[in-house]
Write a structure and sequence with these properties.
mainly alpha, MetI-like fold
């Protein structure tokens, strides 16, 4: 009996023509979809691509059934739903970014290659929105970390009415973005807003907070920090209550100062949760849209227009569908880079302290 090398056996298995050979079906589907997009009209390319995806799905089910992988069969409906609702639209929108296409036009998409991405990266408007988004992100996340940390220090101690006050503090986080945006839009209103009424008692004049770029920016930052500082507080508070009390008792015996106890005991326990809060809030602040749009639509003018609001306007107001899609994937790339930088910093710190 002649032994067959593992590499040859794998190659033969890959090239075998059977319904259960899903790797070959996947490779064939990628080639067919690429050729269909390149050579066929848009309508025909859609149906050919859909047929190729169905063949891959059928091949995967046949493979699972032939191997009697019952667990995979049980999760297959959930995986199929994920592919239909998430993966397929994601890939379809990625394909649209390489075409010139408007959702309001009856003209079929025309191939543009990397033209949309080049236009995005060379647009001064995009870089201006990115700078605005970065500035708002740094300021609002910084405020949330500081306020959330101070609130966590407050609620770490037990006092009368702590539960009731904690419930009130957590209420903003439970509200929707629409409710928060509408509330602060009326709160900043110069005619009957509470802020204007308060300032009027001292100056006798209505207060126009949203009339200047930095005033409107401060209003956006305050609204977002008011909503999400409780989230940071919860994460930090979870770390504070997990600190063993005997560590503080030993520090009291050694007559350690408050700063030394915080630096050597408290901070190591909450550092991971604080960095996690930083990651979550940085990603969400980079995608900030609802509050900005509802308070003053990025005004005055476009001085506070974030990148998410800019994408919305390009896509739904100006119907530049493929251009907005290309910009969306660049924003997605930036978010992925920020996430990986965070994970790299956390892993490096963990290796240093190990």
């Amino acid at each position: 009996m002649v032994a067959v090398a593992p590499g040859i056996r794998t190659r033969r298995r890959f090239l075998s023509l059977s319904w259960s050979n899903w790797p070959l079906a996947l490779v064939a589907a990628v080639v067919v979809v690429a050729l269909a997009v390149w050579l066929l009209p848009a309508d025909s390319a859609f149906w050919v691509s859909l047929a190729a995806v169905c063949v891959v799905a059928f091949s995967a089910v046949a493979y699972v059934y032939s191997r009697r992988l019952n667990g995979a069969l049980l999760v297959a409906p959930a995986v199929a739903l994920l592919l239909v609702m998430n993966i397929f639209p994601l890939l379809w929108s990625l394909g649209l970014s390489f075409f010139h296409y408007r959702a309001s036009s009856i003209q079929p998409p025309s191939w543009l290659g990397l033209g949309n991405f080049a236009k995005v990266l060379t647009s001064p408007d995009v870089w201006d929105r990115l700078r605005t988004t970065g500035l708002i992100m740094v300021l609002t996340v910084g405020c949330q970390l500081v306020v959330g940390f101070l609130l966590a220090l407050l609620f770490e101690k037990r006092f009368v009415g702590r539960r009731v006050l904690l419930t009130l503090v957590l209420t903003p986080m439970m509200l929707s973005y629409v409710a928060v945006g509408a509330f602060f839009r009326y709160y900043y209103d110069p005619t009957f807003g509470l802020l204007s009424q308060f300032v009027r008692t001292f100056t006798g004049e209505p207060f126009l907070l949203l009339n200047t770029p930095w005033g409107a920016r401060a209003g956006i930052i305050f609204a977002d920090a008011w909503m999400w500082s409780p989230f940071v507080m919860l994460l930090v508070l979870a770390g504070l209550v997990s600190v063993p009390s005997y560590l503080y008792e030993a520090a009291e015996i050694d007559r350690a100062s408050w700063w030394r106890k915080f630096r050597t005991i408290t901070l190591p326990y909450i550092r991971g949760l604080l960095l996690l809060a930083l990651l979550f809030r940085t990603i969400e602040a980079f995608k900030l849209f609802d509050v900005v749009f509802l308070i003053n639509e990025g005004g005055p003018g476009t001085s506070n227009e974030t990148i998410a609001l800019y994408i919305y306007r390009q896509s739904f107001q100006y119907n530049k569908t493929s251009y907005a899609t290309a910009l969306t994937y660049i924003v997605l790339f930036v978010v992925v880079v920020l996430t990986n930088l965070y994970l790299y910093g956390v892993n490096r710190r963990a290796r240093e302290t190990a």
